[in-house]
Amino acid sequence: MTTPERHRTVVDERPLAASIGDKIRIARRRSGITQQQLAEGRYTKAYISALENGHAKPSVAALNFIAGRLSLPASHFLTGVDTRWSRLEADILLASGQWEEAAEAYEALAAQATDRTALPEILRGQAEALCRLGRGTDAIKAAARSFEMFEQIGNEREAIVAGYWLAYAQYLSENAAEARSTLRLLLDRLRATKQRDPDLEMRLLTAASNVETWEGNHHAAVAYLEEARTMSRDLDDRRRGAFLSAIATAYYESGDVEGALRAGNQSLALYRTSALEHEAALVANNLANVYLAIGNLTKASELADEARREHEGLHADRELATVLDTQARIRLAAGDTDVAIDLAGQAAAAAEATDNRKALADARVTLARAAARAGDFKTASEMYSLSVEQLRAHGPRAQAATVLAEWAELIASQGDHAEAYRLAREALAKPSA
I need a surface site. Which of 99, 152, 265, 309 has the fewest CB within 10 A? Predict the structure, then answer.
């Protein structure tokens, strides 16, 4: 079976790039700084030169950085420019998975919007694109504004959808308490409406399950998904695959490995037949972890290798960090300590480069385990310490307790029973409300 090609909207961006480049050059010269000084800290002189000469169009992040350096609003560089973005183009980019371009298109549209009824829809699209990119902190403002504006015009259902992306952004920003509170409010409001919306209710229940999983409340996560199961019968393959993937994760975290394998394999089959490579790679990695847990290293390796190939082909570096750590743990279980250390090091580097905090904490724990296996207890303790420090600050709290307990065991094995006792007590302590 051949994989259908993904079509991309082609827009001639040379006039836009040239116009923005001229404005950057003029503003830089007025500020009396060189290209090197403007680039310093994040970009290169060659990149600034390419922008000023119209050979490249800056991303939203780059434009904000440059504008800040030049003490100008980012909108200054877009004033009088035909951005060539239309609402239809932005929606197509979002629907086709071109999230970086979609986020840029929606931001440009929001800056120019004069129609107050269209603005909340644009902001919601921007919030979704940013969430898809894993940029929760950036998405919160757009999602919150969209939610408030939909409420002001009395569009309850669209406000709830915007609220869903707000909760998603809060979750990505590792603020589980806010995400949980938002989702409960949305579920209550949705259920109070006269017309039921099973699809939206299922999305909210699945999101609530993800939050509970993050917090280590695995039985609550399963309960939310079981409540949503009755609404999943009429979903298309993509959404059914996503739902089954969420169920598989919840089952695995609650200790039901058999249920995780059943739901995970069903999800993977749906994604494969639908040619959804990115989603299939995510599920393949999750299944690799389940097979690793039951000791089937051959199947775990096959699935992790598949996930890595797909993520590398799609240049999904954020997700690749997670897969590299999975491969490292598989090699560690197989006794290949040196290979495990190398893979975990790659995972940590990729996680830092993409600001994937969860993958970074996981990779550091894998490095700690591998170093301990190799007899390098100093490095192992350092890696546990770094992981715990991060988890204390950002969560999830349940994972912090698990890592603390492992670290305590390592410390005790080296004879420092007082420190091991202190760490163990912290691991067992109930988190403050």
Answer: 152
Distance CA 179, CA 207 (A): 9
Query: How do residues 419-431 score in pLDDT, each as one tens digit?
Result: 989 998 988 875 5
Q: What is the pLDDT of residues 227-276, one digit of tens each?
A: 887 777 667 777 788 888 888 888 888 888 888 899 889 888 888 887 77
Percent of the chain that is helix, strand, coil (3-state, to 5)? 75, 0, 25
Name which of 129, 131, 121 is nearest 87 in CA terms: 121
Please give the model's pTM, rounded to 2 decimal places: 0.61
CB 78 within 8 Å of CB 111: yes
Q: Which domains does the chain have, with CATH numbers?
A: 14-77 (1.10.260.40)
Q: Are 160 and 190 in contact (CB under 8 A)?
A: yes
Output the pLDDT for position 54.
Answer: 83
Residues 374, 337: contact at Cβ < 8 Å?
yes
Give the three-state DSSP class for 141: helix
